[in-house]
Design brief:
This protein is an all-alpha fold. Among the domains are: 341 residues, Up-down Bundle (Amino acid/polyamine transporter I); 42 residues, no CATH class. Helices cover 72% and strands 1% of the residues. It has 23 helices and two strands. It has a two-stranded antiparallel ribbon with strand order 1-2. β1 and β2 form a beta hairpin. α18 packs antiparallel against α20. The two termini are 14 Å apart. It is found in: Membrane. It holds the Pfam family AA_permease_2.
Length: 561
């Protein structure tokens, strides 16, 4: 049991990094890091999932972006402190190893595998949709059965049998066409998303070749991306009709919070910067600056673009996969819509690139610690990249992207991310308590939460009873199974809030990391129970692998022995 929670010291991690002759090439400065952060954050979220979030929450979804950005600020500050203290690859995995020990490090590493792999599946599928739209704009028509997940087509076929073809939406009619025109083998239609698979392979090849080439490509694509988003904001402002912002929150708070997964998915990219620490020229200085800068820039862009989209068309029209080009088609500005389709393909490619960079570096770090096979730590002698891990990442992302729906992945990736963010914020509290913060070149500003956190807990309870009567009445109507399925996470949130209040009072916890923990935990409680069930299954598989392989081959355990 003591080995499971054995921690790595900061000095030991830095010493191991210096001794490692198989290291990566240091080539990234603060501008490159900000560019990579923007590339990751301003990706499929702004070009795809933002439409679904606006459809569910209405114009008020812009406030959710404010809230999520606010939540991410506290997490980004915690990441920045860890990055300045432990400037090596591994992101939250390495930070958990320092703060909570090997078992927690494995759990976070396993969760990050889910985060990055699943995120890239979403990005690849989103890229495919924009690519197909762009091709059609140039008169190139790819067969529909080569452009989507088979589940879309089969669901559209079943729905057509139930309600008739005439009542299908435009997207469903396209899916039905895919079903009817697809070749069959043994009566089974052959349908898959070929562009999603191809772009994943091409980006993986670029990442494999080297960080310099990836950096140059990313910087170019970010310039294109920011340019088109500013064009959308400025050009779209002329088509805004204020009446489209009424009602502002048509589905109430529930509709707004229902978009948590889609909105938070947009922001998860900032932690990918920390995975490139080994390739930074001055990670202790540049990583904190880059994280905070790209978060502020991206939050402003997201909030602005949401207000423009919901002002140009009614929110009920935004349940589409390519909302930016759709709104300009809607207002009759087809040339702008065509430009957006072309540049969106470039923009989303940059997000795919950064996530494909991040995942192999986490695997490489875990392999160096002995928790997964040493083959994953292989660095290419010429290109200085984690070659084997990069290839495996490409395979793991490309195959599901060919066959699975995007909606499922968006929710699932957020669970793992919230989990990692909470651990990083909690790790800062540990560093403060043990004195490790003295080694940090960047520190989360300290505000004593001794009284503030307990008072916030009491205020939350009071406000819930005053303004949350509708929700409380709903609880009374639910059966025991429904309560477990849909409300257990809310109960966990309030229990955790109580525990943090007691601990803050007892140990004078720093307020900002506590806020980060509680906001992330609250957002987690808004996700569906089905996502949690899948995540728990994923963790169970991970723990089985750890106890069968990782625990036995752990280098830290062998050193202690």
């Amino acid at each position: 049991m003591s080995q499971l929670f054995k921690k790595k010291s900061v000095d030991q991690i830095l010493s191991d990094a210096e001794k490692n002759t198989n290291s990566l090439q240091k080539t990234l400065g603060v501008t490159d890091l900000v560019s990579l952060g923007i590339a990751a954050i301003v990706g499929a979220g702004i070009f795809s999932t933002i439409g679904l979030a606006a459809f569910n929450g209405g114009p008020a979804i812009s406030l959710l972006f404010v809230f999520v950005a606010f939540a991410c600020v506290f997490t980004a500050l915690s990441y920045a402190q860890f990055a300045s203290t432990v400037p090596v690859s591994g992101s939250a995995y390495t930070y958990a190893y320092v703060a909570f020990g090997e078992l927690f490090a494995w759990i976070i590493g396993w969760a990050l595998i889910l985060e990055y792999a699943v995120s890239n599946m979403v990005v690849a599928i989103s890229w495919s949709q924009y690519f197909v739209s762009m091709c059609e704009g140039f008169g190139i028509h790819i067969p529909k059965w080569l452009t989507m997940a088979p589940q879309y087509a089969t669901e559209a076929y079943q729905k057509s049998l139930e309600i008739g073809v005439d009542k299908l939406s435009g997207v469903e009619k396209i899916a039905l066409e895919a079903y009817k025109t697809a070749p069959n083998i043994g009566g089974l239609p052959i349908i898959f998303d070929l562009p999603a698979g191809i772009i994943t392979v091409l980006v993986t090849m670029l990442v494999y070749i080297g960080i310099k080439e990836s950096k140059k490509a990313s910087n170019f694509m970010v310039i294109v991306k920011i340019g088109i988003i500013l064009a959308v904001i400025i050009g779209g402002a002329f088509f805004v009709k204020p009446e489209n912002w009424t009602p502002f929150a048509p589905n109430g708070l529930g509709g707004v919070m229902g978009g948590v997964a889609a909105v938070f998915f947009a922001f998860i990219g900032f932690d990918s910067i920390s995975t490139t620490a080994e390739e930074c020229k001055n990670p202790q200085r540049d990583l904190p600056r880059a994280m905070i800068a790209c978060l502020i820039i991206c939050a402003a862009l997201y909030i602005s673009i949401t207000l423009i989209l919901t002002g140009m068309v009614n929110y009920t029209e935004l349940n589409v996969k390519d909302p930016l080009s759709y709104v300009f088609h809607y207002v009759g500005f087809d040339h702008m819509a065509g430009i957006i389709s072309v540049t969106s393909v470039v923009a989303i490619t940059s997000a795919l690139l950064v996530f494909q960079l991040a995942q192999p570096r986490i695997w490489m770090t875990m392999s160096r610690d002995g928790l997964i096979p040493k083959k994953f730590a292989t660095v290419h002698p010429k290109y200085k990249t984690p070659s084997y891990a990069t290839i495996i990442t490409g395979i793991v992302v490309a195959i599901p992207a060919l066959f699975l729906k995007m909606d499922f992945f968006v929710d699932l990736t957020s669970v793992g991310t919230f989990f990692a963010f909470i651990v990083v914020c909690g790790g800062v509290l540990y560093m403060d308590k043990t004195g490790l913060s003295e080694k940090s070149k960047f520190k989360v500003p300290y505000i004593n939460g001794k009284y503030i956190v307990p008072l916030a807990f009491i205020a939350g309870i009071v406000l819930t009873f005053i303004y949350g009567q509708d929700s409380l009445e709903q609880w009374k109507t639910l059966g025991s199974m429904d309560l477990i399925a849909h409300k257990s996470l809310v109960v966990i949130f309030w229990i955790a809030f109580l525990v943090m209040s007691i601990l803050s009072f007892k140990h004078n916890f720093s307020l900002l990391p506590v806020i980060g923990i509680m906001i992330n935990l609250y957002l987690m409680s808004e996700l569906g129970a089905s996502n949690w069930i899948i995540f728990v299954i994923w963790l169970a598989i991970g723990l089985a692998i750890y106890f069968m392989y990782g625990h036995k081959h752990s280098k830290l355990r062998q050193q202690n022995s």
